[in-house]
Fold each of these.
Amino acid sequence: MAIEKDFFRQVMGRFATGVTVVTTNYHGTPAGLTVNAFCSVSLNPPLVLVCIDRTSSVLPLIRESGIYAVNILTTEQEAFSRCFASPSEERHTHFCHADYHTAATGAPILDGALAFIDTRIVAEYAGGDHIIFIGQVEAMGASSQVAFADESAKEDATLVGHEEEMTSEESLPLGYYRGQYRQLADGYRQPSLSTIYDTKQREQREQPAASSENA
Ligand SMILES: Cc1cc2nc3c(=O)[nH]c(=O)nc-3n(C[C@H](O)[C@H](O)[C@H](O)COP(=O)(O)O)c2cc1C
């Protein structure tokens, strides 16, 4: 069986993701599009990537500005996901009526997002009909906490002093699975990888001491 577009979408749609709006600031004009092809790339240096369709009207703006911010949406922000994925005037002229602040780069950080990652583009790769933009993290925030790679960037950041409006502690992430918006089902929780890793490390630290006591 050949790899048909629809089947590719069906298979990839089994990978549950969050939903983001990737924004940029082109000579003072905000622009953005809905993106779920986003992931973390590197801790040191802190890098992330987004994949943008070559035909997107926002692509040249991201490329030329050299900056983008990833806004991770909450379930209350589904309307933004729909608006930033549409070719409407509401989006292109009014930035989907979204309120926003800025952090390090000047790219819009949507008020009320679950978290944000504000980046400067350090590399661009061809990825078939998409372009992969690698962004170095200049600022990021979640749960009213914001961190900057360079503290001097705080001076121009309009979100400083408004952190509480910026990112939401209690809200849930907007999910996307098999072509539909979803909410996480509450009640299913397992220890995170870091908890498992910390427990293993503690056990390993304690074990040699116990065996030398026995010797
Ligand atoms: C949930 C969801 C995820 C999307 N993910 C991406 C993505 O990762 N990359 C992308 O280029 N477009 C993605 N899109 C499509 C764009 O948001 C949409 O095509 C947008 O209108 C493109 O911008 P344009 O109008 O400037 O062409 C996604 C749309 C939705 C609804």
Note: The chain has six helices and 13 strands.
Amino acid sequence: MNENPMVHDLSLPVEHDGRALSGVASMSRAVTPGEIDVSHGAILYLEDVTVSFDGFRALNELSLSIDVGELRCIIGPNGAGKTTMMDVITGKTAPDSGKVFLGQTIDLTRMNEPSIARAGIGRKFQKPTVFEQHPVWENLELAMKTDKRWLASLRARLDRSAQARIEETLSLIRLEGEALRPAGELSHGQKQRLEIGMLLMQQPALLLLDEPAAGMTDDETMELAALLNHLRGTCSMMVVEHDMEFVAALAGETGKVTVMAEGRVLAHGTLDEVKRDAGVVESYLGR
Ligand SMILES: Nc1ncnc2c1ncn2[C@@H]1O[C@H](COP(=O)(O)OP(=O)(O)OP(=O)(O)O)[C@@H](O)[C@H]1O
Ligand SMILES: [Mg+2]
């Protein structure tokens, strides 16, 4: 189906062997179909990506890459193209030109939204979308990736491991005490954590979060930062955010921050480095 034999056909469900939570091939192992080749260290690679809306370049030859296991914060003024970049990565918007790869070999520009999600990219939108009438634990169960062929032969074993994963996720998102409550009764911050839990049930290799702290109280924001910091190593993450305290809590002193403006990368470095960048001060932080 693909001209390039190195590119996996991801129209089939991705197989999971249950060993790696993230579904990412270990750096030293040969790649098997459905796994992501991160042998060069990058989980996501964008090169010269351009997106135009009626001649206006929302992305203008944007290039960036995210290392496997990295938690990358993206900041930048309104209209910089941050959400458009996530739309391109998830297949919602097709770029006019440029390369978008998951790992070394998976060309995301050739895939549709469902197959990109199956390949291991989870996306968190700003507004939480949970099943309000259903209990918290059932939201997690409904979100779980299920491969019908597995289900047929391994029903009982899968049920037990599914139960264990739900419990593990409930504790990770700190909603053990709310497991039986309808999701509609949760606070905004709890709903946001539940939605992240639902994404985690699909075992993403890369999680994209667009302004996850928007509308949260200060306490909820710091609780979310703690959760994302805790997820390090489980999956790679790209977090777009305006709240600089939240960004500081995620980036720490050594984490890399990318500043976008006018559809491209304006600066890249530690939070301290980009804060001192003259162009960043002028176009974003100094305003
Ligand atoms: N579907 C679309 N049609 C036309 N223009 C669009 C569309 N989507 C985005 N744009 C424009 O592209 C530019 C980039 O928008 P985008 O939403 O990606 O910015 P952003 O960095 O996410 O901003 P914010 O911080 O406000 O969320 C904006 O000027 C926006 O108006
Ligand atoms: Mg946006």
Note: The chain has one domain: 42-285.
Amino acid sequence: MFTMDKKFPYIKSKKLLAICILFIVYFIANKIISADPDSKNKLVVLLRNNISPELRYKIKQNVFPLARQKALLEAERAANKIYARESVGFNKEITELRKLISKDILKKYRSGEINKIPFYKEENMNFNFHNYTYELEIFDTNLLFNGKHDGAILGTSAYLDEYLNKIIIATGDGIISYINHSDLDKKEFNSKIIRSNLTEIILDEEVYEQSSVGIKDILIINDDIYLSYSNNVNECYNTSIIKAKINLDYLEFKKFFEPTYCAKKYSDYFFNPHSSGGKMTLYDKNNLLFTHGDYYYWPAPQDPKNHLGKILMINLNNSESRILSMGHRNPQGLFLDKKNNLLISTEHGPVGGDEINLNYLDDDSVKNFGWPISSYGEHHCKKRFEMDGKNGLDCSDYKLAPLNKSHKDFGFIEPLKYWSPSIGVTEIYKAPIDFLETKNNEFFIGSLGNNINEGDLSLHHITINKSYDKVISENTLKIYQRIRDITYSENLNKFLVFLETKGSIGLLSVKKK
Ligand SMILES: [Ca+2]
């Protein structure tokens, strides 16, 4: 039988009072923390000046999910601004906040407290071009943070491959997880995190943070998973590879390949860890192919011994390497057309001069693609000089690297195609013959950048003629996100793409009209 506790009304009012006080404190504090930085409100100014930024962020992160949500919304608005190119810069406060949130989440990933990344379905994107219709299914997540580039504003860089009926995802900050193909029909699903000994093998903490170093690609060969990464050896960097036997509960990585050479962070030369390359693809049962960027150390690409600015073949059994081609800048796309024994690579130019390069692997000669002697791009300093009313070509970078336009006239191989302005070209992947029922060579190529009208933030469907001498057509699918990686799933008969602006997975299907 229900009996009324005599104390009940008293307790109730006390509780109510406590709730009211808490609410008021919450309201004021929230106001201070999430206030407009230019707020002239006296109370806000007084209180804010007496709280350290660290404490503010801590409170923000732990106590005020609403403030966090607001900041993320602001970040999203900023991202949209970037799309429209109204603003190029990052909001400093958002960057700091993201760093703190991501550190907190990273701790939880490592401890196992978070063991999955939730994805939810977004609206499909549809495109029509001449003979083709394209459909891109998109899955977003809010739990990937450590962008490896300012443009990866809400997401992170990540790389995809397949293992049996699973998509394996390796993020730039070293979170490895998998999605079952069967879950892709659902509106929401989880990518299950695979724990590993990564932090014992890659000691550079920056790899796991918002930075310009990190994991650079994933490749699965049989039951082995290979990861390439920015390797920091006493402030001297190269791109190295580690491997592990696949075990979906735990990956025990060990070192697989480490170049003999590295680029010093502090030297008389430029240094930029974004120019890392790092793309891997399978060659045959005993070898993989691997791109190594120049890290802006310009003497390397034309030095026949130095691994920087090269494409290499690496033996899977003994890790011995051989240079296949030289004169590369930052190749982030690599595809082997087995039937034609043709290696197709893409690479970033400086300002302009992004390239598609072809290397027929029919002899042992080392092909030279020209960087930094020949390029259809220009140095960054050219514009600065011109703005000061000087001759752009007088800036000192041209003395080190003349960037002749012709490749052929200087003994180098011409690119099959180049983009000026640059699109920020990334991965390249050929469609299987029956995917598009074509006699030509159909490729999908990703782009980064921030100017949608120049072909950035898009998927490029490029048709190359049968004999590989020219590009017949280019359909640019405007995705409005940076496209970091592309692979093809035979099981799903779809292309898988990773979109890093927001941290989304895309599934692309194409139909002939
Ligand atoms: Ca070139």
Note: Residues 1-11, 32-40, 77-90 have pLDDT under 50 and may be disordered.
